[in-house]
Write a structure and sequence with these properties.
Blueprint (H helix, E strand, L loop, with lengths): L8 H25 L10 H22 L9 H15 L2 H18 L5 H18 L8 H13 L7 H18 L5 H6 L4 H18 L36 E8 L2 H14 E9 L2 E8 L2 H11 L1 E9 L1 H4 L7 E9 L2 H9 L3 E4 L8 H11 L1 E7 L6 H13 L3 E4 L5 H9 L7 H13 L2 E7 L4 E3 L2 E3 L4 E5 L2 E6 L2 H13 L5 E7 L4 H14 L4 E8 L5 E5 L1
Parallel strand pairs: 5-6, 5-7, 7-8, 14-15
Antiparallel strand pairs: 1-3, 1-4, 2-3, 9-12, 9-16, 10-11, 12-13, 14-16
């Protein structure tokens, strides 16, 4: 989509994300297939796709926030959203580096647009990406980014954004063709670097977004005859290429200051290899390969607050072996790390949804794939995720997995469904039983009003405690304990056998004790179960079965 006086730059950013996602969707299998350095992990295309999907979703959210007005977001808002979305959704080594490339570009383009700004943006992107990798190696996406920036710098003086983007694309394409001569592993397999191939795809989408037409010479990826595994780990941009090394890939988001992150870099570099740390302004994405996964996580805890922790064991991938798929698995979206641990103990694969940052369909589809089962039950646990979960299910079905989405609207419904899950009975019977358990569970949550507004229970003031039952405000209170008691009484007035309480990270355990006593005093035949939900948006979740 071309940039014109009538079409703000934010629209071009949105178009770039959309076109890049579409292109990676077409090419990700081919890019996965050429992922041979230093081992054939087979995930580079998929990880880039999931990273861009998160970036595109963040940009769409910015546009949605302006949907009620006549204006569109500013270019600065759009590029910052794109970079933030990529950062929080980055997958694997290549996705983490891509997030830093986009962050580098956003830092320049947020201050202005045009050909000269695009030159600077590409230069800063390449420099920041190289700085983020502990031990850069030539012949990877870092080299391709460098050459793209150099080619953009050589564009004719006064060149517009489209001309600079075309120069960068051609420079990246030439650099990609040269990567087999820089990395022996690529030369032996007869392929170009997979991460670099993905970057060429992204730059081709940029050309189309700012000029209205794609590159004159589209790049086609030949699929080589090489053995490809299917694990979650992927080739590092800085490694010796011997195919050995640590057996765990550890990835997490981290809230920490700059000085703490510098100490973390040094500690993780001593623990393993393939270290990439990207981000800034208090939020970071950390990726490393280690033998001691626990030590890598502990280092993050010492530096700040790690979350969305993903640990992958890829020793089997290096042996090009995959275990026989399990018959059935359950994938659960959870609002806090406490419930994530609970569901994992029950055998489920979890996806953590931070407040205001719902998972994208690609993230759910990736979780279904990681569950490695022939049959999967997906519990979205949020009414707003029903379409996202349906899209993820379709992606998984296209890969031969039988998926059933149970339309759970809250985490407590997911807990109820998981409690009756029995993998030994037939798939249909299991889905029916889990759906019935979820449907028989009423749900509520407590929230803090951010401003004065009208609700179904009357007018609330900023700071009031709202009690929502089945998604609607039913009680307005002044404190959490009192509001919780009123919510429980309303829910139990219709009957119930079991109350489930899920406490937020900062909610004192004494609240659970007080509410359990309240239930015992007023409802003799009702049992109460309490869980610690960890870092979740609501101070208290309630379920009544």
């Amino acid at each position: 989509m071309p940039q014109t006086a009538d079409e703000p730059d934010a629209v071009a950013v949105r178009s770039w994300c959309s076109l890049a996602l579409e292109a990676l969707g077409r090419e990700r299998e081919a890019i996965d297939a050429i992922n041979v350095y230093p081992v054939a992990d087979g995930d580079t295309g998929t990880n880039l796709y999931l990273t861009v999907e998160s970036a595109a979703a963040a940009v769409e959210a910015v546009f949605a926030a302006h949907a009620t007005g006549t204006s569109v977001p500013s270019a600065a808002d759009a590029v910052r959203a794109m970079a933030h979305g990529a950062l929080i959704g980055a997958r694997g080594n290549s996705g983490t580096i891509l997030a830093q490339l986009l962050r580098g570009m956003a830092g320049v383009l947020a201050e202005g647009t045009g050909g000269d700004r695009m030159r600077l943006a590409l230069a800063q992107a390449a420099a920041w990406a190289r700085e983020a990798v502990a031990h850069p190696v030539e012949g990877t996406v870092l080299t391709v980014a460098d050459r793209a920036a150099a080619a953009a710098a050589q564009a004719a003086p006064g060149a517009d954004t489209a001309e600079v983007a075309r120069a960068a694309y051609e420079g990246a394409r030439a650099a990609l063709d040269a990567t087999p001569g820089q990395l022996p592993a690529l030369a032996r397999a007869g392929v170009v670097d997979a991460g670099g191939r993905g970057l060429v795809t992204l730059l081709g989408a940029l050309v189309e977004a700012v000029s209205g037409r794609g590159p004159e010479r589209p790049y086609e990826t030949p699929v080589p005859f090489v053995p490809v595994g299917g694990g979650d780990a992927e080739c590092p941009a800085g490694d010796d290429g011997d195919g050995g090394g640590p057996v765990f890939e550890v990835i997490y988001l981290l809230e920490a200051g700059d000085e703490a992150v510098e100490r973390l870099r040094a500690r993780l570099d001593a623990l393993g290899d393939s270290l990439v740390v990207v981000g800034g302004d208090g939020l970071w994405n950390v990726h490393v390969h280690v033998d001691d996964a626990g030590a890598a996580v502990e280092a993050g805890v010492e530096a700040g607050r790690p979350y969305r922790i993903r640990i992958t064991h890829f020793a089997a991938d290096r042996a090009h072996a995959r275990p026989e798929p399990a018959r059935r698995a359950v994938v659960v979206v959870v609002p806090g790390d406490g419930l994530a641990a609970l569901c994992r103990e029950a055998g489920a694969t979890t996806v953590l949804a931070r407040p205001g940052e719902p998972p994208a369909s690609g993230e759910l589809a990736d979780a279904v794939r990681r569950a490695h089962a022939r049959e999967v039950v997906l519990l979205p646990n949020d009414a707003d995720l029903r379409h996202t979960a349906a899209a993820a299910a379709e992606q998984a079905r296209a890969q031969g997995v039988r998926v059933a989405v149970i339309p759970t609207r809250a985490a407590v419904q997911g807990i109820a469904a998981l409690a009756v899950h029995e993998p030994d009975r037939s798939f249909d019977e299991d889905v029916v039983a889990m759906t019935s358990a979820a449907g028989a569970t009423r749900y509520a949550e407590l929230a803090v009003a951010e401003r004065q507004s009208w609700t179904t229970a009357g007018i609330c003031q900023a700071g009031d405690i709202l009690g929502l039952i089945d998604g609607d405000v039913a009680v307005i209170g002044q404190d959490v304990p009192g509001t919780a008691r009123k919510v429980l009484d309303r829910m139990l007035a219709a009957g119930g056998e079991l109350v489930t309480l899920v406490l937020g990270e900062n909610t004192p355990p004494t609240l659970a004790e007080a509410l359990e006593q309240h239930v015992r005093d007023g409802h003799l035949a009702v049992d109460t179960t309490t869980y610690r939900g960890g870092h979740q948006g609501a101070p208290l979740l309630i379920g009544v079965e």
